[in-house]
Amino acid sequence: MNSTNRHNSVDYKKDVARKQAAYAAVDEHLQNCQTIGIGSGRTMVHVIDRISELIRQRGWSVRCIPTSYQAKQLILERGLRLFELEHCDEELDWSADSADEIDAELNMIKGGGGCLLQEKIVDTAAGTLVIVCDESKYSSQFGQKWKGGIPLEVVPMAWSLVKRRVESQFGGKALLRESLGKLGPVVTDNGNFLLDWHFEQQHSWEEVDFQLHQMPGVIETGLFIQAASKIYVGKLDGSVSRLVLK
């Protein structure tokens, strides 16, 4: 693909939109002497790049807490100050993360990258959760754009039990996520398995999330119910929308 075609491609424009949203989010939230959470995924590269740039320019000191091994590596590669949640004795100032899909009520599906448990732990430890995405992640209802299902992190010995119960209680199919790089299932950073629940109809997602947490073997779900303080949506025209819960 030549340069002209590359710059006109949808994927390129989406990445530019994510970058615009990431820079806007960091510019509006980053301050000196903060402790912040760093989410996982491609969008977080832009977030970390902007944090690193501002810290160098202003001589600030900021502690970064990762939600995954990938986030940890990005923090170290950019020369940022790595900090671990277990050593933090106060609420995080804010956490930056991305989403797989956001519905009209600002509920989110997260965990397509397999880091949902640590993401939810770090995100809920922050006083403010800032979500960064491009407009392809925003839809009127779950499943309209995101086709990966709702991830469930489960205890390995219980995956088949959870699968049967989810399908029986809510319908659809709960599929064990298989590794692409080796034989066998994906194993999370916490040593657990992932089920991707492909639902067939819309539900009361807050109630579904509650019911899923009652199932023995379910450690965490990829449902983030109205968890974001502010959502930055980068658009293909170069603008950035800001969504806030009413």
What is the topology?
Layout: H1 3-8, H2 10-29, E1 35-38, H3 43-58, E2 63-66, H4 69-77, E3 81-82, E4 94-97, E5 101-102, E6 108-109, H5 116-124, E7 129-134, E8 150-154, H6 159-170, E9 173-176, E10 193-198, H7 205-213, E11 218-221, E12 223-224, E13 230-234, E14 240-243
What this model shows, in words?
By secondary structure, the protein is α/β, with parallel strands linked by helices. The chain has 2 domains: 3-137 and 226-236, 3-Layer(aba) Sandwich (Rossmann fold); 150-221, Alpha-Beta Plaits, CATH 3.30.70.260. Helices cover 33% and strands 22% of the residues. It has 7 helices and 14 strands. A 7-stranded mixed sheet has the order 3-2-1-4-7-13-14, with helices on both faces. Strands 9-10-8-11 form a 4-stranded antiparallel sheet. α2 (10-29) crosses α3 (43-58). The model has no long low-confidence stretch (mean pLDDT 94).
Q: What CATH architecture label of the largest domain applies?
A: 3-Layer(aba) Sandwich
Q: How many individual domains?
A: 2
Helical percent range? 25-40%
Query: What is the residue-mean pLDDT, rounded to a whole number?
Result: 94
Structural class: alpha/beta
Which properties best describe this structure?
246 residues, alpha/beta, Rossmann fold, Alpha-Beta Plaits, seven-stranded mixed sheet, four-stranded antiparallel sheet, 7 helices, 33% helix, 22% strand, globular, ribose-5-phosphate isomerase activity, NagB/RpiA_transferase-like, isomerase
